[in-house]
Structures are given as C-alpha cells and as structure tokens.
Design brief:
three-stranded antiparallel β-sheet, rbstp2171, 44% helix
C-alpha cells in the first residue's frame, strides 16, 4: 500500500532532496575486461543528448561515465580524437554503447520502474 505525498512531508524532506548525492553504479564491460563507474546524468545533458540527430548515446557516455574520465585531455590526445565523443567509439563496442546508455537513463530516472500507476477503483 502506498501513501499520498503531502506538502508537509515534502517540507520535511527538503534537505535530503536538495542535497541528495549523485547516484552511481559500477558496470562490467566485457570487451575491456574491466569495470567502469557511471553516474546519474543531469537534465541538461539528457536534453542535449535527446535533441541530437547523431551520437546521442556517445554524448551521454562521455558525460555519464565517471571512472575512467572519458573527457580527460591526455586520454583524448592519446587516442587521437578529433571530437570528444570519438573516444567512446574507440573504447566500446556498439552494443556496449547502447547498453551503457540504457543504464545511464535508468540511473537518471528513466525507465519502466521509475514511477508506477496506482489504480484504486471503488467497488460497489
């Protein structure tokens, strides 16, 4: 049974909601035989990524993979990346990019379990 959220409860939760920590998750990447850490994406990055015609998943990974830092200048230089998103394609297989992007979206609150419909019908 769920409870109805009230203004009073939201006021009590203010500090924890405003100061909530960034959610992270570790993923094992088969082709690299290593773990990476992903972090919850801010709304601005999701909006930019979903508005892109190409490379939206790569863009999400560029900002969503926190360890290793895919935006590190020495990493981008070593892999001779013309665009920052080039590093994503050079490191991960296509299927891995899609899977990691999917995990990023779930971590950021998108997905089938993010909210649930509460169906309360009055029986006669």
């Amino acid at each position: 049974m769920t409870k109805k959220l009230t203004v009073a409860e939201l006021l009590k939760m203010k500090d924890s909601l405003v100061n909530r920590k960034e959610t992270t998750k570790n993923l094992y990447v088969e082709s690299l035989a290593s773990e990476i850490t992903i972090k919850e994406l801010p709304a601005s990055i999701i909006e930019e990524a979903t508005g892109m015609e190409e490379r939206s998943d790569e863009y999400a990974l560029l900002y969503g993979v926190s360890e290793p830092n895919l935006r590190d200048a020495s990493l981008l230089a070593a892999y001779e990346c013309n665009e920052p998103t080039d590093i994503v394609v050079k490191l991960f297989k296509v299927g891995e990019i899609k899977a990691i992007a999917g995990e990023l979206m779930k971590l950021s609150g998108y997905g089938i379990d993010a909210v649930k419909v509460v169906d309360k019908q009055i029986k006669n």
